[in-house]
Design goal:
Elements lengths: L2 H24 L3 H24 L4 H31 L2 H10 L2 H10 L4 H12 L3 H21 L1 H39 L4 H39 L5 H11 L8 H14 L2 H15 L2 H14 L3 H15 L3 H22 L18
Helix pairs in contact: 2-3, 2-8, 3-8, 4-7, 5-6, 9-10, 9-12, 9-13, 9-15, 10-11, 11-12, 13-14, 14-15
Amino acid sequence: MTRPQLFTAAFFTLLLVLLYQIALMFKPFLFPVLWAGLLAHTTFPLYERMTRLLGGRPVLSAAVLTFSIFALVLIPISSLAALLVREAGTVEQTVREWIAGGGLQRLPEQLRTLPLIGGIFDQVVSASGAQTGSMEQGLMAGATFVSQFLLNQAGDLIKDAFLLATDFVLMLFVLFFLFKDGRQWLAALRDIIPMELSHKDKILTRIDQTVRAVVKGMFLTAIVQGLLAGAAYAMLSVPFPAVLTALTVVLAPLPFGGTALVWGPVCLYLLWVGPLWKSLALLAWGVGVVSTVDHFLRPWLIGQEVQIPVVLLVFSVLGGLALYGLIGLFVGPLLVSLLVTALQIYREEYHAVPAGPVQTPVTPAGS
């Protein structure tokens, strides 16, 4: 091995060791950085427009946009958390007041008036021989258990909330610098990638197309699911259909529950107030249409943009969710898209069949 070759081998060995150690050190911050990169890429046109409106001041524009995202996320989450804490602390007291007001005595009659549920309730009560007193004791024991469970889990909940808040602050911190310096960082990264310029442009273009396609696919699918659910809310005379529709759109992208977190409780409400056919109709519409459309519409919308088979997109979304969590909705399709691009580059550069010499057909003698 010559001296330059030895130097090259030592240099790249040191570089790989440093990259590996840096990766281990930055691993705890991977998901906040990924979310920041996704938000920066999606809202960067808005940042550029705001920079022009503010007279070409990128630092001020980045600060304003970062604070706007902070307020947009923090205000509703804080309101919801305060509501949950207040309601969780009054579970046992609410149950006691309900029992003292005769709610438990009225409950069997109310259940017997419900179609289908009434007959099942009578059979259960007659088979178990339950009395009102035992029902009161069981209900109070359940309420006490819920209150004690919430108190016992308060420490873990506070810890999880602190970690979530820390990740959120880190994401905002990275987001600010991505707005301010992201273009220069991307240009520097593009320069040092040891590939042909056309290949680098192809990969970066594919990343841009995939991220935009996934965001658009999730956004349009959530709107379609919200409108489908909202139409059912309005037709079944559910109270506050506009609010429920907006909540359905917001929760639609969640991988577990999604729209069912809204139309499921509404089904229980319709079952309670009657008639039974409304609850069954909403249940069938929610399971058969609202929740099912997500499995077909989102992969189709994304596949139309990035030109990837729908079956690969479905598996990339499911596999990304299993491996990375919610961010896997974006990481999974992005990795598959980059693999397809890498295979295209390989086919063009290393698998091209060279044109051989043209062979002149031999004409038999005497023909």
